[in-house]
Every structure is written in C-alpha cells, then in structure tokens.
Specification:
With 134 residues, the protein is of the alpha+beta class. The protein is 32% helix and 19% strand. It has one domain. The longest helix is centred in the N-terminal third of the chain and has 25 residues.
C-alpha cells in the first residue's frame, strides 16, 4: 500500500535502536566475549554484501566493525553475535581476516533539488556510513 516508505523507516529505526543497544552491551563484554560474528537475517531484498558477510568472525576491536556493525541500510535485519573461545571451538569457526573496506560514491538528494555525492563503504546505504561510537 501507500505506507510502504513509513513502514521501512519505522522497521529500520526499530532494528537500528535494538542493534545500538546490543553494540553497547557487546562492547562492555568484549573482555569475556572478544569475537563478533556477523549474522545476515533474511529480508525481502537481501544485499549481496550483507549475505557475503554472513558468518564472518572478527575480533570485537577490529576497525571493520566501525563501518559494518548493523544496522547499515534501510530494511537491514542483520545482527552480530558475541562469542568466546569455547563458542568458536564448539562451532568450528575461526577468527578471520577482515575484508578490505571498499568505498564507493553515490549520488543522493536528487528529489530535494540539492544533489550531492557521498562516499560510503560498499554494502552501506548513505546516511548509515558513520562510524559506530559509544
């Protein structure tokens, strides 16, 4: 229906708020749960980059998380799971090398009459590219 845009914004804000709270909790627990695993959750229109990051395990202090800890796009339902050494052993997972952060330029603001180009990491929507900070 007509309210699709409002629904996407509402859902995105809901997930972003939830993930921000998780981010704060996981940062505080990084001494005991020092690894984070990216988890892609199904969405209506999955992003290939997000699907590609599914299962990626990095140290919690890896700079990659500054630009990729969810929520990083409209409609994104991805999350991060905190792990310790026992979790890694039981799951058979290992800590990986962070993917290189690839940047791209995107044109935004065409409808407002004030178009401009912004630089964002691939897989991250404009306005979601700002580093996570506590």
């Amino acid at each position: 229906g007509r309210n699709w845009r409002s629904r996407i914004i509402y859902d995105t804000n809901l997930y972003a708020s939830y993930n921000h709270g998780r981010y704060q909790q996981q940062k505080e627990l990084a001494d005991v749960l020092p690894y984070w695993e990216y988890e892609h959750n199904d969405s209506t229109h999955p992003r290939l980059q997000h699907v590609g990051w599914d299962g990626l395990v990095l140290r919690a202090d890896d700079p990659w998380w500054d630009y990729h800890y969810p929520t990083r796009a409209y409609g994104c339902h991805c999350t991060v799971r905190a792990l310790d050494d026992v979790d890694l052993k039981h799951s058979g997972k290992t800590v990986q090398q962070a993917p290189e952060i690839e940047w791209e330029e995107k044109l935004i603001g065409q409808r407002s009459g004030q178009p401009r180009i912004v630089r964002v990491p691939k897989g991250v929507d404009p306005s979601f590219e700002h580093p996570k900070r506590l």
